[in-house]
Design goal:
The chain is α/β, with parallel strands linked by helices and about 300 residues long. It contains 13 helices and eleven strands. Among the domains are: about 70 residues, Arc Repressor Mutant, subunit A; about 100 residues, Periplasmic binding protein-like II (D-Maltodextrin-Binding Protein, domain 2). Helix 1 packs across helix 2, helix 1 packs across helix 4 and helix 6 packs across helix 13. The mean pLDDT is about 90. Pfam families: HTH_1 (PF00126), LysR_substrate (PF03466).
Length: about 300
């Protein structure tokens, strides 16, 4: 059974853009044409591929096909480029969807963005996700590569170590004096307001476990962006775990202090990528490895 390229392109565009109207605009056709192509593709496959939600989501079968569609688009783009006919294409650059945790994205990953800008051959579609949960996006075919804390390669991918991101427990000096004047104790941890990035963020709880095995239930502020997380700590709202690359500015200026200099968390990071022959994925992988080697601590082996 062969898959029609126009139907496959319509399918991928709906998932990438999120709805039928934007997919139609991207492919310069009408929304009804997109709908018809999707219907024909689903009839041919014999399964529903797209959930008509807002935004549109792939079904289990659709996720398998989406990865195939992304591979086809990537390899097609590279072939056109190698043949020297990229000027005839609507887009002259290879699109690479990747998943990066917010802390990396807002710190050392800036070096990768600089390298991509200097290279000029690709565009990045970056999805932000917690480093402990990013592999799900790779499994589902939503991205071609990404950063995770897992050293284990998933099916169809290969993995390489990047380094260690060190997290420090920090707060404003006045906050530490108010809550931790007698040190980091179970009583102080239970009373002191705590920052968390979102429900997936377990770093603070891991740090707490270094000091006590008691059940700790402090007041918790959920702050979902790196910059606002930093500002919340700096302004004395609560304490939280912060990458040293981000915390150092406040530590150097005296606006932040560590709760305990002897205790920190080292989080290993790994780069996962599709196991396909692709110059574009090879290139972005090398850029990430170079940036990590410059910015992250070495991973103990």
């Amino acid at each position: 059974m062969k898959i029609d390229n126009a139907q496959l392109a319509a399918f991928a565009a709906v998932l990438t853009e999120g709805n039928f109207d934007l997919a139609a605009r991207k492919l310069n056709v009408t929304p009804s044409a997109i709908s018809q192509r999707i219907k024909l593709l689903e009839d041919r496959i014999g399964q529903i591929l797209i959930q008509r939600t807002i935004p549109c989501q792939a079904t289990a079968a659709g996720r398998m096909l989406w990865r195939y569609a992304e591979e086809v688009a990537l390899l097609e783009s590279e072939v056109f480029s190698a043949l020297g006919i990229e000027k005839e294409l609507q887009s002259t650059k290879v699109r690479i969807p990747i998943v990066v945790n917010a802390d990396s994205l807002d710190s050392w990953f800036a070096l990768v963005l600089e390298s991509v800008a200097l290279d000029g051959t690709m565009v990045l579609d970056i999805r932000a996700e917690d480093q402990d949960h990013s592999l799900a996006m790779l499994r589902e075919g939503n991205v071609m590569a990404g950063i995770s804390t897992s050293p284990n390669a998933i099916q169809g991918c290969k993995v390489e170590a990047l380094g260690v991101m060190r997290y420090l427990a920090v707060a404003a000096p006045s906050f530490r004096k108010r809550y931790f004047s007698r040190g980091v104790t179970a009583k102080a941890l239970n009373a002191a307001p705590m920052l968390t990035f979102n429900r997936k963020d377990a770093l603070q709880q891991v740090f707490i476990a270094r000091f006590t095995d008691q059940a700790i239930e402090p007041p918790i502020h959920a702050i979902p962006t790196t910059r606002s997380f930093y500002e919340a700590a700096r302004r004395g709202l609560a304490w939280g775990m912060m990458p040293e690359q981000i915390a150092n500015q406040g530590l150097d200026s005296g606006e932040l202090v560590q709760l305990n200099k002897q205790h920190f968390l080292d989080v290993p990071l790994y780069w996962h990528r599709w196991r396909i022959e692709s110059k574009a994925i090879d290139l972005i992988s090398q850029m990430v490895a170079d940036a990590a080697a410059f910015s992250l601590r070495k991973l103990d082996t």
